[in-house]
Amino acid sequence: MRIAVAQITSGADKAENLQLVADYARRAAEQNAQVVVFPEATMQGFGTGRLDTQAESPQGPFASEVETLAQDLGITIVLGMFSPADQVERDNKTINRIDNLAIVRGQATAEYRKIHTYDAFGYRESDTVRPGEQLCTFELFDVTFGIATCFDIRFPEQFRQLARDGAEVILVPASWNDGEDKLRQWRLLSSARALDSTAFVVACGQAKPQDDRPKEAPTGIGYSRVLDPTGVVLAEAGADPELLVVDIDPEQVAKVRKTLPVL
Q: Residue limits of the CN hydrolase domain (predicted)?
């Protein structure tokens, strides 16, 4: 199976971000990738403005354009977007919260709402994002995929449960926060989650932005990675926008789980 990892930098404009998706998806299809994974917040980058004003239903125009693109190219697209969720009171203010979604469009259709919101290092994503409640797996080409999003990667039990639910490949759209020691943690956590779950992990992050964005916001550091079921790195990007194309063998999962039965 050939998987592409589209490490992009999303901005504030949905139309421009959708054009980025089209450009990278087309390049992935030209290299015969069957799946292309984009980052969390592909619809609108963190730190570029209010998310609730651009949030859409997963049946809305943005997701519909992604579906059309996927069908036209014959590729399955996985990316992060935002949809309206609920209202909460914070500091005597009413806040329109959103769902942080990862959507799958093309040869399979699925939606995952991020469970573990980024409430750490001085940032409170739960003020503006409603935490999800359900794990997500889907079938594609006789392979079971799982999805987790960014901060979820710090919670090994989510990955282990996805594996118990049959996931052989776990896709992780992300927008990792930059800062001291964060790259080391990103690398360590992604490798550990592959080994915990004895599954392939495809972790696609936002590239490191070149414009001025709030330092506390999880705007991306790059270094997207693909790991095998023993945690070995098969490919890693740098900090800048990049397209990785990697061949994986899902049958390796059963072999590893037979010799390393940790689930």
A: 1-250
* Annotation marks residue 40 as catalytic: yes
204 as an active site residue: the answer is no
The helix (H) or strand (E) run that includes residue 74 is: none
The domain that holds 181 is classified in CATH as 3.60.110.10
Q: What is the pLDDT of residue 122?
A: 83
Q: DSSP states of 178-199 as a string? A: PSTTHHHHHHHHHHHHHHHHTS
Cβ atoms 137, 145 nearer than 8 A: yes
Distances in Å between the Cα of 129 and the Cα atoms of 100, 169, 181 are 6, 26, 25
Catalytic residue among 56, 114, 125, 136: 114
For the chain, the domain total comes to 1
Q: Which tokens go with 119?
A: 């409430």
Residue 121 predicted with pLDDT over 90: no
Active-site annotation holds for 168: no
Q: What is the pLDDT of residue 197?
A: 99
Q: 226 is in which domain, residue-wise? A: 2-259
Catalytic residue among 14, 111, 150, 208: 150
- Residue 247: C-alpha distances to residues 1, 4, 124, 180, 250 (Å): 6, 9, 37, 32, 10
pTM for the predicted model, two decimal places: 0.97
**Binning pLDDT at 50, 70 and 90, where does residue 48 land?**
very high
Per residue in 187-246, pLDDT (tens digit) is: 999 999 999 999 999 999 999 998 878 777 899 999 999 999 999 999 999 999 999 999
Catalytic site residue from 40, 56, 111, 168: 40
